[in-house]
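cron nightly-structures :: item 1 of 1
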Amino acid sequence: MPKPRFEVIKQHIIDKIEKGSWVSGDTVPSENQLSEQFLVSRMTARRALSELTQSGVLERIQGAGTFVAEQLPTGSLLEIRNIADEIAERGHSHKAEVLCLEERISDEKMRHLLALNAGQKYWFSRVLHFENNLPIQLEERFVNAKLVPDYLQQDFSQITPGAYLTQVTPLSEADHWIEAINGSSKVCKLLAMKKNTHCLKVSRRTYSRKKNAKTKQLDIVNFAYLYHPGDRYRLGGHLNF
């Protein structure tokens, strides 16, 4: 099956950047130019440019045009997205290595993170995500076992934990916090960073109403720590008002 035309345009732009034909700051052809070049509508060209802007490949400046962005992998600051989808939108390959997947018993910390009582079980996973074989995210996730009973039976080298949780417990709300920290020696080693260099740490708690649709009560589904190399990753987004 042939690729959608907007995907063809996206791949054309990505190829130009990866081959060095277009570098950071270079102007990218306009929607009109791309629509004429690829014989598509302006809407199709606009979709290609918008998706590459959202994934951090391009930068659009109102009244000035579209430019090649500094090529750092970019995650969304404004929405919760699957890391595998982010990487695919940049035209790169994703793979995941499952470092830990096990049952644990809650302690005082879990009362704060998941609202569990001491002695209740929960699931823990640690997954390392790679972009073009370079580690880009270390994910540590604490999951409410009662809400997601089959979590330990999943192959998280094939589907990301985030994507699976979204399927079985649709997201209703989320809290998240972002901070720069000095990575521990373990985190730095896993992310192929020099010791004591900065990490971008995202802490995120997600909620779902799936089990309580009638009462609209929110259940905490999971709490995750997401670590990224500070010099190879950034968070961003575009706001419309």
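cron nightly-structures :: done
The two ends are 38 Å apart (CA to CA).
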